[in-house]
Design goal:
Structural class: alpha+beta
CATH class: Alpha Beta
Order of helices and strands: EHHEEHEEEE
Low-confidence stretches: 1-5
Helix content: 25-40%
Number of strands: 7
Shape: globular
Radius of gyration: 14 Å
Distance between the termini: 33 Å
Mean pLDDT: 90
Number of helices: 3
Strand order of the largest sheet: 1-4-5-6-7-2-3
Strand content: over 45%
Length: about 120
């Protein structure tokens, strides 16, 4: 019988592609962050959908300059063979000033195929 419970992970046990994206995103390194995605990847953030690496790159550039904030990984788990959730605590000059967000990753062929960011 297979255990279907989510597995708790740490930043050290997240797949390399996710840590590469998260590290590059924190450093505002859009060129590196985009390499973590499939060409036809989808990102859903703040009610908006971005499809393809060109749109994702523009979203990353805008999100890097729109607000100033700190971001800390507070938890991570693997929910199935290709899905991971990384929970982050953000504080900054965006509306509300403090939020915890769930970054829900779906991987395909070693890259991020889908990323949904929501509270």
């Amino acid at each position: 019988m297979r255990d279907h419970q989510p597995r708790t992970s740490t930043a050290n046990t997240l797949p390399e592609v996710i840590t590469r994206y998260l590290t590059a995103h924190r450093a505002h390194d859009t060129a590196t962050a985009v390499t973590a995605f499939t060409r036809e990847a989808t990102v859903i953030d703040d009610g908006n959908t971005y499809e393809g690496t060109e749109a994702i790159g523009k979203w990353l550039d805008r999100s890097a300059t729109e607000f100033t904030y700190t971001i800390h990984l507070t938890g991570a788990q693997q929910t199935d063979a290709t899905r991971y959730i990384a929970t982050h605590h953000l504080e900054g000059n965006f509306p509300g000033g403090i939020i915890d967000l769930r970054y829900q990753f779906t991987l395909r062929d070693g890259l991020i195929e889908r990323l949904v960011i929501e509270p």
